TrEMBL record, chains A, B:
Organism per entry: Cichorium intybus
Highest taxon in the source lineage: Eukaryota
Protein name stated in the entry: Uncharacterized protein
Length: 514, 514
């Protein structure tokens, strides 16, 4: 069943909002995030670019509140009706023509530089005089703080307090990011950096409500979970119900201005042991009785707003969920993930391909001699004269992952791929941080690499991205902060002895990998 | 029964949290606002001033997250244990020694002034060159924005994301306001102005949840309503239940970081007509059947955090409640308040007292000749040779408001006090705005003065503050924004014909009072 079909099924089968939440959680109709979301479909009446630009200008320059509300709705509806190209054009205008007033800034600076800095810390015997003198500093500093805000700050702030505006701003930021991906324009980067800072403030964890998502939630919310689950797609109603049922937890962060739609959510399985394969997490039945569980396994974390890229809500979410689960279920003492290694195969295949073109890749060989022999033996058919790496490339890039149909290939490839995967996770860096995005996410949150699992995700996506390997990142409560700090300051990646062992013959038994 | 007793009664009689809210509205224990609230009682282990100062310094200067959490808790607990005097001392240190780095600011300014402003709007034919040139501006402007933040910004921001921190910051601001009330210190004013701006951002209406408070809410929340109801104290459990029952509504704004405690709440009565007395709102039984109601009467609005003074949450609350009620109950078409005039008697008594000392007060006489005669007649006992104003002062300042025991005085005083009240509301200004704080609040929200009501609040407080008079401010949906705008820009006070009539003989039939 496709997602739309499921959503319709969910809508028709779910029971309505429970009376308590209906009475107690009020939201004005125009505040409903859905309104803005559907505007993108419903109000695609083609609108003149000039009109939208005009409404943007009104929003920035107006004073009166009522007409302002109208202008804000006008602008956001108009924006949604624009083509991608016109949106880009509009954002460039915003970045360039609604920048800050540089002559005003310079004027204030001139006044400021003319002031004399009082001696001491302002607490000397002439306290009052110093205070009086300082007040000129305070005044100009305050004015400068305001003058240094670009004019488009007004647009962002007004949108933020406008119903549906926060979500609209996330859409705008997604558009800004797509311009930056196309072309590196300084003014657009400044616009992005300013909006990102604002969004970080507005989406501070203090403003987010941790919500346990259950089968009792409205279908309109559950539908979002189905639509946005990015790691292990939810295949049907039974699948969804199971993920919210006994032995499972699902938590999301909800912002009051975007009700009924978590910005990010995490799925947790309560288990006896740290699972080795995603199949057992998703499909084994029945689940472990909750009273026997000792492990909380985070098996999926998905964010729903592309426009919030670079704003790490996941870190806070994981921390709060750990604390919450620990408090509710004191018998749970292990916190771990079962995660994909989404960049592994792309990295490996490009390395193998460039080695075919005789570009050296590692200082050492990709394959160790005994691995190469075993591989050539197994791949008897026409392997004469070929090198192990060619064979490996051919196997791994075969359509439909044919190698996974053969027990022999599976067992020959196991040590090779696990060793290379450990090497990828532990040694491949970009600007001093782990190259793999999921690894980088958990490492910066303070996790360690605990275990690699062979044939842990046999889905199409799991094989294509991670060669079927999955990794358990371990959140060890007493070490989270130390590990996060070490990773942050030196890029040090903490890993278990088992994982380090895969590559230690090369790394000469270093205690850990930097 | 005192408030504490009622709170205990509420605790024991209320049913526990309903299962749905228990499951769906999770809050980590340390996020519970109560923790911080009770800290002020429980952790009054005297703490050394030096220790608290040290922990404040750590919070501002530290890097590591885990120890930071400890330092933040340490600091807030320590702060609560300080005497009022030591808190003031600490806040002065914060304002003066954790100010901004002025040499860094000047250094950046020097760099900035050295840059040449590119011609045009950056979109000319050499677009890229201009962009490249602008990026130096963007960089220094961004650095300056950061450098212009005082060091104490870090403390505020870290507290804001710390469990219980937002509420703690409200306490800190209340302390800052009390220092300013004592002494006008420039650095403390700068500290206050900075913190206030931050709080306005963090308490943006976009971050607040509108919550309908009902009898099904937890006792811990209802207890807060009892404790903070500032206008018409809640006298017992029946009173509270009635205010949350049929024909009544109560709405509050709740911030996710201060759960279970509205920052501000409003009480609404659904009625057939705009009520003339608070007695009928609070005590008439049974209430109007909701289907017959045409009027939503706002009879009380209370904020719970003294530290949020000057941050107008009420305006947004009233607007949202109007929209919500209108949507839920289309038969409701009148929105009005029944409000006290808290500054009326203080103003009048001081005017009368100064007129006794022969200081002229108004350009006209306080009493009109026929009023003076009637008053002296009624006050026959020893009124010989005395002036009407003396008699008025004596009557109004008598203990226990004796005049309210006499029908004759009540009827003689009615035209006098209503006229003077209209004069007070319409003409007495401070910095161009209505002198009366409640009037100023509703007028800036866009209400008009609709009707004065005689003997509308016979409570001790109502007689002492407002001479028993109450006023209906009318929120007329189609005019709210115009009225708010006119009041904001020119101080124009919109009033009904009836109210203007009280003073029109003096004001020569102007259309309205400026």
């Amino acid at each position: 069943m496709n997602k739309k079909g499921l959503a319709i099924l969910l809508r028709s089968k779910m029971r309505p909002l429970s009376p308590v939440s209906k009475v107690n959680k009020l939201q004005l109709a125009p505040l409903d995030g859905n309104k803005v979301a559907t505007q993108s479909d419903s109000s695609k009446t083609p609108r003149d670019f000039g009109q939208v630009r005009e409404s943007m200008h009104s929003v920035i320059s107006m004073n009166r509140k009522e007409i302002l509300d109208t202008a804000l709705s006008e602008f956001s509806e108009g924006y949604f009706s624009l083509s991608q190209e016109n949106r880009h054009k509009l954002l460039l205008i915003l970045a360039r023509e609604y920048d800050l007033n540089r002559s005003q800034v310079r004027e204030l600076m001139k006044q400021y530089v003319g002031l004399e800095i009082p001696k001491g810390d302002g607490t000397d015997e002439h306290g009052h005089e110093v205070e009086g003198h300082l007040s000129s500093f305070y005044r100009i500093e305050r004015n400068l703080r305001h003058a240094l805000n670009p004019m488009y700050a007004v647009l962002f702030e007004r949108l933020n307090t406008h119903p549906g505006g926060l979500k609209f701003l996330a859409t705008v930021r997604a558009d800004i990011l797509s311009i930056i991906a196309d072309e590196n324009v300084a003014s657009i980067r400044a616009l992005d950096s300013y909006l990102k800072e604002k969004l970080i403030t507005w989406l501070s964890p203090a403003n987010l409500e941790l919500h346990q998502i259950t089968w009792d939630d409205p279908a309109s919310l559950l539908e979002k979970i189905v639509a946005y689950e990015a790691v292990h797609p939810i295949s049907n109603l039974i699948d969804l119900k199971r993920r919210l049922g006994t032995g499972r937890r699902c938590f999301g962060y909800i912002h009051p201005a975007i009700p009924g739609e978590p910005l990010i959510f995490i799925e947790v399985a309560l288990m006896k042991n740290i699972a080795c394969t995603i199949q057992e997490v998703l499909w084994h039945d029945p689940p472990t009785p909750e009273c026997e569980a000792t492990t909380a396994l985070f098996y999926s974390i998905s964010s729903t707003q592309p426009g919030l890229a670079g704003i790490n809500l996941g870190k806070f979410l994981i921390k709060r969920v750990i604390h919450l689960v620990k408090k509710d279920m004191p018998n749970i003492s292990n916190f771990a993930t079962l995660s994909p290694i989404p960049g592994f195969m792309q990295w490996l295949l490009s390395k193998l391909a460039s080695s075919e073109r005789s570009v050296p890749i590692f200082s050492e060989n990709i394959l160790q001699p005994h691995e190469e022999r075993a591989l050539l033996d197994a791949y008897s058919e026409s392997s004469e004269g070929r090198k192990g790496m060619e064979v490996l490339l051919q196997l791994l890039s075969s359509s439909n992952h044919e190698w996974t149909q053969s027990d022999r290939f599976i067992s020959e490839l196991q040590p090779i791929l696990l060793r290379l995967c450990a090497r990828y996770l532990l040694c491949e860096k970009k600007r001093g941080k782990a190259l793999d995005s999921v690894a980088n996410f958990h490492l910066q949150n303070g996790a360690m690499i605990g275990r690699l699992n062979w044939m842990a995700d046999r889905s199409e996506k799991g094989l294509t991205q991670s060669g079927g390997v999955m990794v358990n990142y371990i959140y060890s409560l007493e070490h989270i902060e130390d590990y996060a700090q070490a990773y942050f300051s030196t890029g040090h990646i903490q890993a278990s002895h088992d994982v380090r062992n895969y590559i230690e013959p090369m790394e000469k038994n270093e205690d850990s990998i930097n």
